[in-house]
Amino acid sequence: MSVVTRFAPSPTGYLHIGGARTALFNWLYARRHNGKFLLRIEDTDRERSTDDAVEKIYEGLNWLGLDWDGDAVSQFDRRERHAEVAQQLLDEGKAYYCYCTPEELTEMREKARAQGRTVAYDRRWRDSDATPPEGVKPVVRLKAPLEGETVIEDSVQGDVKVSNDKIDDMILLRGDGTPTYMLAVVVDDHDMGVTHAIRGDDHLTNAFRQKVIYDAMGWETPQFAHIPLIHGSDGKKLSKRHGALAASSYRDEGFLPEAMCNYLLRLGWGRGDEEFIPRDKAIEWFDLDGIGKAPARFDTAKLTALNFDYIRQSDDARLAELVLPLMKAELGEKFNSEGESWLVAGMPGLKERAKTLLELAESASFYMRALPFTYNDKALKLMNKGNAKELLAQFVASLDTVSDWTQENLENAAKSLAEKQEVGLGKIAQPIRVALTGSTVSPSVFEVMAVLGHDETVRRLTSEPENQGE
């Protein structure tokens, strides 16, 4: 059997964390088994579905690297096919028209509630010979089994059963002829050849009703796998108080997509003590039996720590490519496009200190900032204190003696000057740092000098800032 999975989001907003994890699990399972991962946009709710939301779903999946096979399917575009299946069930006597008014349905619900019953609709039109009332557009209801039980063989939850007297004669087509979610999902999954439906366990109750439709049509039911939902670090349902809910928010906050996928994979799935799981290993190892039954807890601190690890192991040129747009937006006219080679060369020292791409862009911006610099208050105070400028000038003069421009030789030149002036190395290194970067915080100043080269180093060390201070 060729594996076919699907991700079927509703385009009513952004791609949220839970949806992203569901998509990831479906993608990994399909890729592991050399199958297909399909995308279906469940846009039958025309009032809430928007083109912008569809684009955000595409954007989120593309950012995470979850490519789908073939074109995305619009559920709304398949409404005629859904109606066709409903008509087939009518023709076979497995469905019927129901003419109940809203008032009658309300009365039934209240009665069922008073009697402690789950099923509200009393099936009055199921086998009725009554003359249909005028002016009422009927809905189409499925004839659910009245006896026995419906069993879902779930890859995560195990065998789950429900007595059929708890399943109502669900509506398949509304009075205006539009299909309900229950019908559309079953028809689409069947027609798309879906073999495994991996989704949140909030859909488990839907699975019983959907299986009734599968059975009525004589179709094979896909293998269900209902995964527990994601909770916040406090164990409560994930909400905005726990942090951002949109996958795109984490992209904008400077998280790498591979770090996010790794973290989402570990939310509810595990393989021993493995924490750092690159994409190729995730495909090789992922299977449904590794999914736990307990809700996973989303912890932003753990995600951040994992992102830090991924940044440190990432390719320098790729990191530079990712942070350049951020720095260009931040620096504006002060952006120096000629600094890209310095940025890439200096990346090994920069990425050891950054937890996110935003932090990396901020700490690396001095490589891309055009002269003259504008010093912050702390940098100004340091440069105007004591003989800082004099020591800086002496250090610049000493650079003529450095024949081999290496980090070690540059540090030795600074140490030699410090001994000669009988001051600590920091008294020289800090003014150098401010002149090179415009800040009092940076990677090793000698590392920065080695990256910038002789000419740019001297240019920066001898350049006056835009703001001189007092």
UniProtKB/TrEMBL annotation:
Compartment(s) where it occurs, according to its Swiss-Prot or TrEMBL record: Cytoplasm
SUPFAM superfamilies in alphabetical order: An anticodon-binding domain of class I aminoacyl-tRNA synthetases, Nucleotidylyl transferase
Motif ('KMSKS' region): 237-241
Family listed: Belongs to the class-I aminoacyl-tRNA synthetase family. Glutamate--tRNA ligase type 1 subfamily.
Domain Aminoacyl-tRNA synthetase class I anticodon-binding: 318-462
Species this chain originates from: Candidatus Terasakiella magnetica
First-tier enzyme category under EC: ligase
Entry function: Catalyzes the attachment of glutamate to tRNA(Glu) in a two-step reaction: glutamate is first activated by ATP to form Glu-AMP and then transferred to the acceptor end of tRNA(Glu).
UniProt domain Glutamyl/glutaminyl-tRNA synthetase class Ib catalytic: residue ranges: 3-304
Protein name, entry field: Glutamate--tRNA ligase
'HIGH' region, short sequence motif: residues: 9-19
Annotated CDD domains: GluRS_core
UniProt entry keywords in alphabetical sequence: Aminoacyl-tRNA synthetase, ATP-binding, Cytoplasm, Ligase, Nucleotide-binding, Protein biosynthesis
Residue numbers binding ATP: K240
Any one GO BP annotation for this protein: glutamyl-tRNA aminoacylation
PANTHER family from the UniProt entry: GLUTAMATE--TRNA LIGASE, GLUTAMATE--TRNA LIGASE, MITOCHONDRIAL-RELATED
Catalytic reactions on record: tRNA(Glu) + L-glutamate + ATP = L-glutamyl-tRNA(Glu) + AMP + diphosphate
Oligomeric and partner information: Monomer.
